[in-house]
Amino acid sequence: MNNEREKGNGSVGQPKPSLVVGPIAVLNVRKKVVENFLSEKYQVHLYCAGEKTPILSRESLKSLKTPEYHIFVTNFEWLRAKHKGQNKPDLRAVFDTVIIDGAHTIKDENTGEYEVLRNLVPRNFILLTGTPVMNRDVDIAAMLSLFRPDSLWEDMHCDRKTNPFHLEDDHPFAVLRATSFAVHRYLDTLPEKDHVKRGEWLERIYDIVLLKQGFGTTMNGVSIGSAIPPVKTTIHHWFRYRRKGGQCDGGHFGRK
Questions:
Q1: pTM of structure
Q2: Is residue 226 part of a domain?
């Protein structure tokens, strides 16, 4: 959680607090786990109904003397109730790291959880889930968009008619494979008979946004996760894209 990270332009970012979001039923457990994992200099706060923690906002977090040593643990429902819609406290870019426990619930871009998380824009996202995400590539689209918004196509001046899966791995536009648009437009529209190509294209996504396959559940005779290629590492490693006149940052996510 030590978060004085070097930015793409060489400067060091300001220290920021971190946020853990999970199911309401296990908030106290998550708080205890975080406290046991970190040293005593860290302060872990429950941010939920019944607690005395004030409403989080850009202004309230500025008052923290050592923000990098503060971690807030909350649940989807409370975060959505307090930070959704207009005239709600702005939490955009105020956190260093946001850890999402139960990330399978945000595979749908139309959920309230996704809307709230999309607006956080932390330096790092770490997505965790013990619930298998089914073998549908479209299920990872919402997760990908937390790291690489579809606006990256315009930021990089890439025509959306360009299929990034057809590009060489070292091509600057190859990183666009790991966007929600690329999954919906190019991967999910592959004919069913092209299952080999689908697996190859998925692997090209996982080379950019790394996943850890940690289960072997079988349901209705189908092995959950069997379409996920083996990977060599797990969660978050930030990449930098540099080009003349601009730069774009993105991140990696993992799952249990």
A1: 0.69
A2: no
